[in-house]
Amino acid sequence: MPPLLQVENLRTYFHTPRGIAKAVDGVSFQVEQGKTLAIVGESGCGKSITALSLLQLVPEPAGYIEGGRILFEGRDLLDLTWDQMRRVRGDDIAMIFQEPMTSLNPTFTIGYQLVEAMTMHGKFTGAQARQRAKDLLARVGLQDPAQALRQYPHELSGGMRQRVMIAIALSNEPKLLIADEPTTALDVTVQAQILALIRDLQREQNMGVLLITHDLGIVAETSEEVAVMYAGQIVEYGPTSAIFHEPRHPYARGLFASLPARGRRGQDLATLEGIVPPPTAWPPACRFEPRCAYRWDTCAQVPPKYHPADSDRPVRCHLYDPEIADRPARGAAPIAKEPVAPDPTVEAAR
Ligand code: SF4
Fold first, then answer.
1. Domain 1-92+176-350: what homologous superfamily?
2. Which of 221, 305, 327 is nearest to 26 (CA)?
3. Nearest atom within ligand 1 for CA of residue 235
4. Does position 223 have pLDDT exceeding 60, yes or no?
5. Averaged pLDDT, 57-66
6. Band (20; pLDDT cuts 50, 70, 90)
7. What is the C-alpha separation between 33 and 73, in angstroms, rounded?
8. Nearest C-alpha to atom 3 of ligand 1 is from which residue?
9. Is the pLDDT of residue 10 over 60?
């Protein structure tokens, strides 16, 4: 059976005054029914643009999908007309955005927006949608759903608005939920409740979830697989437990070393040196090379290969490529290089 979502070599670029920004540059992954894939990485690595590309919501005209395939239940979404794609959004695939206030219309009540989300796709009549709206708000944990239906977004707290967004996203029982930093703006208690809610609904509806986050604690709790993204590309992909236990790519090692862990009490947490370069200035060979403590000359000259079809733990790094003859032993200590200082002209352009 094909996966619910299969993304192949997706490339999303932007025209900018400083040239083409390759925000998403050859990304491939898949999401199975009832399972969660987490895409992790620092801000500016292309995670959110990847999510927006799936629903063809990339800001135009600057942004455009340069190529690739987005197969949903075997059908390439890039071949659909605007109308067909509009039906897929909300009906089959729903998205929870980072900031609910920017996604809810401040001029309409919560009830209007929830009912409209259900009736516009024709799955429910007005009466059914109104009853279902109340049920959904109760399901996402709002204390007084009848009152919330009459309220405007600004009358609700951040946690309540995020719950409303989840209710809207789930109102048409989507097969795939894309959650882009769904709990970033929330306090820890509400965050835990919302993640538990998504998990419950995922189990009930056998929904696939694509979770975009930089919070590795959330990844550990919720996902079966992880894709580590850096500078518009996936640099490591595999089962969550394997990547947490033994991250391989030097970037993934840096990310996971910054997690607090049992047995490291009292020790300083590791930090990743340097910053993500802007997408108009990705380094030409290995994009992590300027920040990598393991780099050697080849890394700045030859782009590392990445073959997701050949392995269940693909890694985009010369250290894992047997065809790179001059690579050091994988277990060798880092060569203790300082990150390359950012180019001031590039920094000025950020
Ligand atoms: Fe580091 Fe070289 Fe691997 Fe890039 S290819 S991550 S620079 S070791």
1. P-loop containing nucleotide triphosphate hydrolases (3.40.50.300)
2. 305
3. 6
4. yes
5. 91
6. very high
7. 10
8. 317
9. yes
- φ, ψ of residue 285 in degrees (nearest 5): -105, -105
- Tell me whether residue 339 is exposed, middle or buried, using C-beta atoms within 10 angstroms of its C-beta: 0 to 12, 13 to 18, 19 or more: middle
Residue 220 alpha carbon to ligand 1 centre in Å? 25
CA of 222 from ligand 1 middle (Å) equals: 29
Distance between CA atoms of residues 291 and 284, nearest Å: 14
Contact 290 CB / ligand 1 (< 6 Å): no
Dihedral-angle region of residue 47 (phi above 0 means left; psi in -120 to 50 means alpha; beta otherwise): alpha
Q: Which atom of ligand 1 is nearest to the CA of 300?
A: 7
With a 6 Å cutoff on the Cβ, whether 317 touches ligand 1 is yes
SS3 259: coil
Distance of CA 172 from the midpoint of ligand 1 (Å) = 44
- The pLDDT tens digits of the residues spanning 102-146 come to 678 999 999 999 999 899 877 889 999 999 999 999 988 888 999
The per-residue pLDDT of the chain, averaged, comes to 87
Helix (H, G, I), strand (E, B), or coil: what is residue 37?
strand
Sorted by where each begins, the domain ranges of the chain are 1-92+176-350, 100-173
pLDDT tier, 331 (very low <50, low <70, confident <90, very high otherwise):
low
Give the span between the Cα atoms of 212 and 254, in whole angstroms: 19
- Residue type at position 68: G
The region that residue 303 occupies, defined by phi over 0 for left and psi between -120 and 50 for alpha, beta otherwise, is beta
Ligand 1 midpoint to CA 218 (Å):
27
Residue type for 338, please? E
Give me 192's structure tokens.
Answer: 């835990």
Minimum-distance ligand 1 atom for the alpha carbon of 296: 2
Residue 288 CB less than 6 A away from ligand 1: yes
Gap between the Cα atoms of 152 and 64, Å rounded: 34
Q: Measured from the CB, is residue 230 less than 6 Å from ligand 1? A: no
